[in-house]
Amino acid sequence: MVKIEKFIPGGQALGQLDSGKKIFFWNALPGEVILDYEIIKTKSHYDEALATRIDQSSPFRVEPKDQCYLATSPWQVLDYNYELTTKRELVVELFREHHIDIDLPEIITDNHDYYYRNKMEYALYWDNNDHKIHPAFHQRGSHRKIPVTSSSLERPEIFTTATSIIEQLNTSHEEARDYQSLLLRCNQDGEVSGGLFKKYQSHPVFTNLSDTILGYSYKYSPNGFFQINLPVYEMALQEIQQYIKTNKVLDLYSGVGTIGLSVARNHLLTLVECDRYAYQELQNNVSQVPNRDHIIAVLAKSEDATNYIEPNQTVILDPPRAGCDSRVINKLNEQKPHTIIYLSCNPATQARDVKLLLDNYEIETVKTFNFFPHTPHIENLLILKRLD
């Protein structure tokens, strides 16, 4: 029997065994008592587990919409308002660990918490009873595949297309073991692109999609990087746009350019991206801008492009989960650009980085966006203003 104490930033719920060893649970909420569980990972200082029998259920527990929720969206068992409150508390706690007190308003959401994902990758499951392939997800903490008959996280057009493709495979008497996965992406108009990845073969080239963000059109590959939840992403971009107050703008970790080109395409804009496939799409998106001589796209790691950081500019940061390289932080402290706009998918590394900048900057605002409802993932926006 294990009493749950609280959520931790990774999304699991923390408990402690009689031995004193920590145990991190999926399918558990603070205040609940876990009677039975399945260990999915064992380390020297902690275990990870799935709660399978619960006593004293939390009043914030709800019935999950999907049978496969633990594989895709383990916070489906949380009341949605409780999810938003929990994410806010986690961000505040992460910053407090770095001795930073932040004034964080309520999490920003469009309240469309299902059917929001515009990309999904399915495993293929072979059923020995009906001798057919079925779409599937991997069980959390395991390589075992779970066949699914419905899924409410991705846009309906995606699951409908996946079902149709798999029906074609079954008609042709194909076998699941010949395929790695099925990846599909859908734009806001409901057009779907993507397809099957066959084992031991090069990934196919899929038809590009296009979407409009803040009135601007972008093309992208279904298997490339592009935001998952565009309506909430637009809400974040509208917030960012308010803080572009210099003529020069530098967009580091720019991906295909949707931040810089959406909020600062009429400024002297430099975009830096290291992935060559994303850079190709970035170049294509830049090419759609009329009179684009004031826009520069750079193929480089952001830590190798710090010479572009200047005092009288706005710097946009949207790094991977690992956060910013120390060379970027050091150059920001040296050059002291006017404003730093830091969008992060990992508030833990964001708080670490921000702590290193506070000798030269003050936090002007912090806002958190629920890009990924029913999952523990958090997207946090922070604006730093130079101390003059």
Descriptive terms for the model:
single chain; OB fold (Dihydrolipoamide Acetyltransferase, E2P); 388 residues; Rossmann fold; 7-stranded mixed beta sheet; 20 strands; alpha+beta; 6-stranded mixed beta sheet
Fill in the CATH topology of the largest domain. Rossmann fold
Shape: globular
Fraction of residues in β-strands:
25-35%
Number of domains: 3
The first-level CATH class of the largest domain is given as Alpha Beta
Termini separation comes to: 56 Å
Mean pLDDT, rounded to whole units?
Answer: 96
Number of helices: 8
Radius of gyration: 22 Å
Which parts are unreliable, with pLDDT below 50 for 5 consecutive residues or more?
A: none
Number of strands: 20
Q: From N to C, what is the helix and strand string?
A: EEEEEEHHEEEHEEEEHEHEHEEHEHEE
CATH superfamily placement of the largest domain: Vaccinia Virus protein VP39
